Amino acid sequence: GFVLDYISPPGTSLAETDRLLRRVESVLQQTPEVQTYSRRTGLQLGGGVTEANIGDFFVRLKPFPRRGIEEVMNDVRDEIEKHIPGLQVELLQLMEDLIGDLTAVPQPIEIKLYSDDEQLLRTLPPRVADTISNVRGVVEVKTGIVPAGDALNIQVDRVKVALEGIDPEAVTKALNNFLAGNVTTHVQQGPKLIGVRVWIPRDARETIRNIDNLLLRAPDGHLFPLKRVATLLPLSGQPEIMRDDLKRMIAVTARISGRDLGSTVSDVRRVLARSSVVPNNVLYTFGGLYEQQQIAFRGLTIILIAAIILVFLLLLFLYESFRVAFAMLLVPIFAVAGVFIGLWITGTEFNITSRMGMTMIVGIVTEIAIFYYSEFRSLPPSNERLITAGINRMRAISMTTFAAILALLPLALGIGRGAAMQQPLAIAIISGLIFSLPLVLIALPALLAILEPKTA
What we know:
This protein is of the alpha+beta class. It has helices spanning 14-29, 69-83, 94-103, 118-132, 158-163, 168-179, 208-212, 261-275, 288-319, 322-346, 352-378, 385-412, 419-451, and strands at residues 2-7, 34-41, 54-61, 88-93, 109-114, 138-142, 151-156, 182-189, 192-198, 215-217, 223-225, 230-235, 242-244, 247-256, 283-287. It folds into 3 domains: 1-105, Multidrug efflux transporter AcrB pore domain (Alpha-Beta Plaits, 2-Layer Sandwich); 151-235, Multidrug efflux transporter AcrB TolC docking domain, DN and DC subdomains (2-Layer Sandwich); 321-451, Multidrug efflux transporter AcrB transmembrane domain (Multidrug efflux transporter AcrB transmembrane fold), CATH 1.20.1640.
């Protein structure tokens, strides 16, 4: 199945949100691949509490035969965008949504814009969103501007406050007690303590005129209205202020459909550089899942290099020959190159799971190479020893390889729940195993004959 996250416009009532979501339910009901669905409002799959205009659907699909999950998601997205324009939706697979909610980086593409100019950060994100929306495969582009509703800015005049014989901090504290209330005591209700908040009546703080006429008490006891020492400025459509590393930031986000993450982000970089939509005085970086992927790639690259070095040291310890160790090490390295070919043929994305499969291939293919060379060393010296070792071990090596391939085949075909997450891992391992057969049985004897002619 998949998860459909939705966001209705800020300030939308619960009744209006429910009306929009019932139309989404009708779209799901008309999709033949949908078996069941459930809906939540004000809660994320990762357990986080959100606003009443935010929530998600969990959609369970019917078992095969049916259309692929990506095709179903694209159709549902198109129908919602066509018939329910007031609702923003994001469609993603189950584990992707869960990991995104837990790590707070749910978007594959996230362009972080940094600037101290508040007005620029209001006008720039829509232009950036329009620019990257033209990139093939980029869908569900969002500007990142989240209206937080109206606000009232109370500017206290320090000179006028001093004339009343009171300091600005006392005015701020009094207004906070009047408008936000103050918890003065607690009342026990069962096993819990319930706070008792004391504040002025609602009719005394409903309008700007009411707040203007609030009476404050000076230290000498006289009363004066707030409007005598402060100016009230109503602000409409205030956006949420987000900061990253203490810098004001707005993130333009998007999802990807039908393409891999790496090539899509490269196209987005190219479009942004060519269009010059981002001014020189604005810093922008790429975050989201792309940033996490790059961090993971760097870590996996170190692991892959460490695995190759450890395998070489192991072979050197076993056979006490640099040439033999080098010849056997070339076999898993060539098999790693075969992984790239397999991913390219199948059109599979080169991601973290496929990178893990590539690292595993180093150990698996080295084991097969040791299997061959152990047989080679057990034979008496002769001109046909390399060929004889291959003949003796061909059946065992082939059966071991084919058994591993058949075991991974359902996962590589995406059969079963959750198989799509591990599909690149299975394809990477199968590709390396397929290339390992000719490498071990043909390339390794040739390398041994070239590097160790006396042994051969």
